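Handoff note, outgoing to incoming analyst
You'll be picking up this chain. Sequence as last confirmed:
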Amino acid sequence: MDLKGKRVLVTGGAGFIGRRIVSKLEAAGADILVPRSADCDLREKSNCERAVRGRDLVIHAACRSRGLLLNQQEPGTLFYDNALMGIQLMEAARLAGVQKFVTVGSVCAYPKLAPLPFCEDDLWSGYPEETNAPYGVAKRALLVQGQAYRQQYAFNAVHLLLVNVYGPGDHFDVRSGHVIPALIRKFDSARRAQASVVDLWGSGRATREFLYVEDAAEAVLLAARRYDRPDPLNIGTSSDVSIADLAAKIRLLMGFTGDLRWDASMPEGQPARRLDVSRAEREMGFRARVSLDEGLRKTVDSFREQAG
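Most recent structure output, in case you need it:
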């Protein structure tokens, strides 16, 4: 798909990843519609129908997602909101004759104990990790919907499985942010308070893979342009890091000189995450460009500019 002149709906286009997607679409010459959640609640069928009208391409990047604490506190809301938004939007897009539908999915859809590195063919080999299963299963449902619609209606739906995305402009909140922005905020607060120790959840042994937000947006545009198959695509770096090593990197960047105290009685989510990203490189030429160290520096620099 040549994006120049295409009428594109980007749900979540004002959000963390969505803003980058919109910026890249603008550079490609697309005609972009970004519905605002305050005026266009996608849980309402009529809003989905209005949003997709006259669009050539839908990029569904809207989601309700936060850190581990929110997953524990609001599992029902996370399942309902994410499933309902996506299911209704895709059905509305099909009925409206939209040419292509790109779903921005999540690594949370993978089974808790999937073999490393996670391969797309192992997606259904087990149940997701319990603390984020409602969100992960809701995202799985959109993959099934897209594949079913392709089979029955020849509807061109594609599905991306993104690892943890981070970068400037993230949600820097200890309670509801994801791990990188939450750690940045926590170390900043500790340094300002001259605290001698920072308490962290879990053992620190869990591993995660992280993708810089600009790389994530580039992958979405590549999928819109080049990918037209029913199989989901892993989007990541194929490089993981333990939470303990991640915390050490951020601690150094934030200038916190105190100690770290791990509370192994607290949950730490899925034991390990690392993707096999060979299919995305083979099918659409995607390869992440920004290393974790470079991305963390950029993220911390941006946070400091905002925090003052």
